[in-house]
Amino acid sequence: MPDYSYFDMYIPRDTTREAARQLLTEHAEHGDWELDRLRLYPDGSRHVRLRRRIIRVTRTM
């Protein structure tokens, strides 16, 4: 089973959908993060959890 590291992010309600998309796209392209969970609150704010796989190096000899 793969291990993941997680990154929680809060996006305020006055952030536009396009700006939020651009922010998440930059994290995905440059940090190898993928979307794990997105929670949209009634006031318009978002709580985002990103994850990326932890690569463990195993010894061969």
Automatic annotation (TrEMBL):
InterPro entries, A to Z: DUF5703
Protein name as annotated: Dihydroorotate dehydrogenase
Lineage: Bacteria, Bacillati, Actinomycetota, Actinomycetes, Streptosporangiales
